[in-house]
Amino acid sequence: xxxxxxxxxxxxxxxLGHYIHxxxxxxxxxxxxxxxxxxxxxxxxxxLPFPGRxxxxxxx
Amino acid sequence: xxxxxxxxxxxxxxRRRVEGKLPPEKVLPDTQPSYVASWIYVFxxxxxASLGVVIFTGxxxxxxxxxxxxxxxxxxxxNSLHLWSVEIFFFTxxxxxWGKFAMAAWRGGRTLTWMTGVxxxxxxxxxxxxxxxxxxxxxxQWITTQAKDGINATGAGAYFNVLNLGQMLMWHxxxxxxxxxxxxxxxxxxxRIKGVVPPFEDxxxxxxxxxxxxx
Lengths: 60, 215
What we know:
The structure holds two protein chains of two kinds.
Chain A: H1 2-10, E1 19-22, E2 25-28, H2 29-47, H3 53-59
Antiparallel strand pairs in A: 1-2
Chain B: H1 3-8, H2 10-21, H3 24-27, E1 31-33, H4 42-64, H5 66-71, H6 73-102, H7 111-133, H8 138-154, H9 165-194, E2 210-212
Antiparallel strand pairs in B: 1-2
Helix pairs in contact in B: 4-6, 7-9
């Protein structure tokens, strides 16, 4: 329970959301964070070597 | 009964057709082409795994009911598991979608695989939206009073009333999950029948080297 309370202190979820507004562009920080994380994960999935791939190439 | 009569039975014809299209070695294959050894191919099965958690936690919530998920520690925990597994479900599904779009995964007679994925995505969005409407708290009251204007503007409000909690809950826990799970099963079966889409250069080359699935 103490852990849960300390997390609640780090991420206060019971407040108004934060928004980024630039001309026509309007998005919540939470949504923008998720979109950036998805793009980072997508690029990492393309670039990072898959475990065991080198071993398979050596075996071929 | 003669062999000719047995051959004419619809059960025999259906079984042979299914066996021809989807033999056991295609349902649970031992090997996959070597190009599948990439992180980008992980996101389809990650989507499936998170869907499993979504369905399981949803079943627990359905068993215990709103007072439990709003008013007890374990209820909050399972409610949070349901929410976050949905977040991971959409997160991984969108990366799976980007990856497959970049690969033009509809190539090689895989149009139906692609289209079942598209419709599953749409059904999942509808399931998530009706989930927002089914929370039975102030959040769902706010969301549904805002959503009703959008739905009414389409003319669908007479049939799909977002302010009707019972109707939204039934869509969320019966109709749309059935659609999402059936479409997902169809999507996976089609992937098994047609195989994973090859990279562009392998489209014109001979078949790629095979590697064991469990390696």
